[in-house]
Structures
1.
Amino acid sequence: MDEVFKALADPSRRKLLDELFKSNGKTLGELCEHLDMTRQAVTKHLVILEAANLVATVWRGREKLHYLNPVPLQEIYERWIGKYERHRLRALSDLKKGLEQNKNKKG
Amino acid sequence: MDEVFKALADPSRRKLLDELFKSNGKTLGELCEHLDMTRQAVTKHLVILEAANLVATVWRGREKLHYLNPVPLQEIYERWIGKYERHRLRALSDLKKGLEQNKNKKG
DNA sequence: TTGACATGCAACCTATTGGTTGCATATTGT
DNA sequence: ACAATATGCAACCAATAGGTTGCATGTCAA
């Protein structure tokens, strides 16, 4: 869970996921083409994405193919984002109430 | 968008959001009670959450009340997580296909 | 077999992050 | 008015993150 959030925090890593979304099963070399950094830097990002289980890899000869795994994103939504969303309207009404309460205390 | 992801990357900040989820409108002092760090550290986290628009604040006298704003989380889901989720099954089937393809190439 | 290709591993550097301490400011209650 | 309370601001510090360069390893193709 923690690793997934951390993996998503970096824009380059999100871009990598976007690349894989566009065309799954890319090699490291192919993924490098779209990022303005060295191959080694991209490798590091991919390692983090793998650790978060957001990317699965398969060796084919000397090439490493990268596949997007959206399951952890689903879990983030269900366990975390959904939790707040469900009460979105209530939270906003609380905020409004708080603002009015403040107004009253002041005035 | 970027700021939201960054804000969510830290476990202490997620814990703060959890606190506000449990009971909205807490003061800084109240939020500090549950975190094992100095008040100033908590303030820094809250500043980041505010910058990401995940927390809205209201002054009531000398107290600062903090309110959870789940809207950016909704946006993350819609613009980003949902994008992958929608094609979750397809992506998994691609992964499977990739594995089989590899198996064939090897054998 | 051998050279080119695709990737891995490790040391290193700099910027950022998460935390601290110390002091300043503003509000409250007596 | 004044002491206590609630918070802000800034300097500082250690750990981590994101990037680099250099070299090693393993696979393909002629």
2.
Amino acid sequence: MTRPIAPDRIEAVRRFNRWYTQRAGALRGDLLATPFPLPQARVLFELAHRDGVTAADLAASLAVDPSYLSRLLSGLESEGLVLRARDKADGRRHSLALTAAGKRAFADLDRRSRDEVRGILEPLTPERENRLLGGMHAIEQVLGGAESPASPFTLRAHEPGDLGWVVSRHGALYAREYGWDATFEALVAEIGAKFLREFDPGRERAWIAERDGERVGSVFVVSQSASVAMLRLLLVEPQARGLGLGRRLVAECMRFARTVGYREMVLWTNDGLHAARHLYVEAGFTLVGEQRHTSFGHALVGQTWSLDLGSQRNDPDP
Amino acid sequence: MTRPIAPDRIEAVRRFNRWYTQRAGALRGDLLATPFPLPQARVLFELAHRDGVTAADLAASLAVDPSYLSRLLSGLESEGLVLRARDKADGRRHSLALTAAGKRAFADLDRRSRDEVRGILEPLTPERENRLLGGMHAIEQVLGGAESPASPFTLRAHEPGDLGWVVSRHGALYAREYGWDATFEALVAEIGAKFLREFDPGRERAWIAERDGERVGSVFVVSQSASVAMLRLLLVEPQARGLGLGRRLVAECMRFARTVGYREMVLWTNDGLHAARHLYVEAGFTLVGEQRHTSFGHALVGQTWSLDLGSQRNDPDP
DNA sequence: AACATTAATTGACAATGTCCACTAATTAAT
DNA sequence: ATTAATTAGTGGACATTGTCAATTAATGTT
């Protein structure tokens, strides 16, 4: 049961491939403008990052024919950049390493490559840079699956456009994952509008998590009373789950709430949201009340959780 | 005055380049799995799309050495796929064309290439496919500037997540372009929430414009009274401006409003929004009132525009 | 000990790409 | 009109890049 694919989608991918292949000829896998030809540069790059590998490992990770690699290594060895040493444990294997000269050569190559990329990014506006990085990240993630390494996330305060993003992602994700209807997105929009209108910078805060210029999570702390803070709109994008982002966001809220002087933090959620529940339990929240309600097109059980901010330190950091 | 670039951004671009270069080795510029080697396939592809070009043109558009191209063409000619004919006007030039066999060969190649890309897209969820296409589009647009051809946009009804997107983009764009503060984003969120809560499918509608799976515009029609429709939240992303999208969105609203039986359409805007003003004038709206107000951190002049839906047909389509 | 397997290399060769020189046709300059 | 300069395309020579099968030496298996 294969899914039908729109022809224009296929064309768009092909166009991108053609375009990028041609451009990549210019970028040369980011290793242009180095004194080394691309295959040699790739070997140097890999050796600089993984010292002591064997030729077979290297051939596998560079997706290069072993015989070709052997010749490349011979060349680099005769230039004094690479050292091939027979493995003591297994005499068939050679362990490879850069010599001091090889390390210098790589440092130079690396600097040129960075400068080249910097030269591409510099003329862009920050917004276009974000668009570019976000696009690259999306492609890596979709096509690469788990292959591509997860880059770390960063947290920042909210900016124009963030609130709408929070609304959008709540609406889309809860519709998809739980089948909630449009009134949920409306509710989030109302909560968000109220937050912006009544924002008290000293006692309230929103965090937006980003990865490679792309928003991947959010959380809000709003003032419910002089001593009670409310945690709201906690969201972690599916592609950023499992990185500890949810825990970090909750921890950030607790730290802020303590710093500002709240004595209690509460939050409202619904049963069935197990990942979130886990986070709250872990952070020390306890369930203080439940009430049935019909909302968002479903019969749900709303839950109120509470945490005493004074009694204990739940932040595991020193 | 170059802008400082964060090192992790540079690393992210380099990582993508390395990754994609390696993967593109597998995709081979989307022309893998064809009976032709890549350079020949590229020539066939180009000739199939631009009949009668000269070798120099071809060499330029493929970014290939003329002498190399000459040899490639010789090969293809001896296989009976390409015809080289001396130009009558200029005896130095040869005009190139595919033979019937060449066209068949290309058709086969093209089909295989499409099948290959289809095979990549099929296992993806529609959401991941959108992410992929959106990412590719973003990269082409940012790096390619105006080079990459603009693909056409499509309109669709709103879905979960769209409303938040409208809020987000209004907030971000008006902050950037006019310096409006967060209360504007809050206002849009309130308008959006109200739309979702009181949505009357028979008499109200929202359109989201997409290009390559990426949202690039919006417009809403809401009921103000039995006979008066209100046009709201018209937005066109900067990267999609100049495509006639704004005109199309306004036209869509008018058509819908007429179909549903409204007699008048009104809208509220502010002076200084010149691109929008132009669209409204063009569609036949007239300015019916102005009032000063201080909102969004600025002293503004609000404007009410109106259009009699019965008196004239402003839709230029047949 | 005989055999199979593995890591790395070598030989042979094909594909791909680059540089320079050259021819023929055309255009520009005198 | 003749000469010089330019342009389109080609061929020679060569370097780079990549592929495949065979070989060597070390290790593992029976």
3.
Amino acid sequence: MTEFDFNRSFGFVLYETARLLSKRFDQRSKSLGLTRAQCQALAYLVYHEGINQAGLAELLELEPISLARLIDRMAQAGWVERRPDPQDRRAWQLFMTEKAKPLFAEMIAVGREVRAEALSGFSPEDSDRIMELLLRARHNLSDHTTELAPPESSGPLAGAAE
Amino acid sequence: MTEFDFNRSFGFVLYETARLLSKRFDQRSKSLGLTRAQCQALAYLVYHEGINQAGLAELLELEPISLARLIDRMAQAGWVERRPDPQDRRAWQLFMTEKAKPLFAEMIAVGREVRAEALSGFSPEDSDRIMELLLRARHNLSDHTTELAPPESSGPLAGAAE
DNA sequence: GGCTTATCTTAAGCCTGCTTATTAAATTAG
DNA sequence: CTAATTTAATAAGCAGGCTTAAGATAAGCC
């Protein structure tokens, strides 16, 4: 009779793996002054300048209030600027500051290092496979599961996704 | 020229998937009065009665202080009891209370539901594969990467891992 | 116009995790 | 035995999630 092997419980394994990876990212990115969550928010913001908080929260799939406080800290640190939306007095338009722009190369390098550590010993096929399977799982858990995956679109950081 | 597709960045995808799944678990387990993290701690505790906090933190791969406050809340709620270790006056021995024991079946059911949602549309091979790949990644990110995976051991909840 | 509903943001309060640092006790070195 | 080191637990302070609820504005309907 084998133990309920929580060490092999899907949810626990997934959550721990993500937490350990996030911890590694934060350790390595500490010199940047940006956390993993802030990097992610900035990453989306680059391609959606002027988006409001509700829209960015939608992209990041987190609650608007969670994003609001993330933006609070980033605005405080000078990475992000809030400008009033001239069309909608309830909303802010969000912009990266010039100060934040030089950080992209470093963010990408940190991401690459952490990914390499996590996927050490993975064949290219294994790496592709885990991404594919995670994307499917994320899609299943998403609130808007009817939407399609976003198409490859143009931008200044071609092929950098890891 | 394709965008840096953060939507396909390994770390971001992994983290989001885990967060969405954890959110689902907490939504469904709210009636239990236990969060995902508390369920996980209890799950390990069942098979390690009398373990101290440092040991349990090691099993869960989180920092001792993180576990200490988790245990604070669980002791407060009456799920866990701290008893002084007669051999070591620094340490507590941790025990599940009787009150907590009936919750296991429900915890497992919630885990099963959430897993089914996440892995909807996955073939059995896909399900096995994502677990295997996640376990390898977690092992790579673990602090004690030299240790082997734990063997199948005996216990009262055979084959329940999902 | 006026009412109702929906949307954007934030407040309050909570849980979970981290880093850093402290205290107390056990263990080891000399 | 004593001193130095290690270990168990906790304190303080912070980031980042959540739920629930509120305020302000926009949009839609009559």
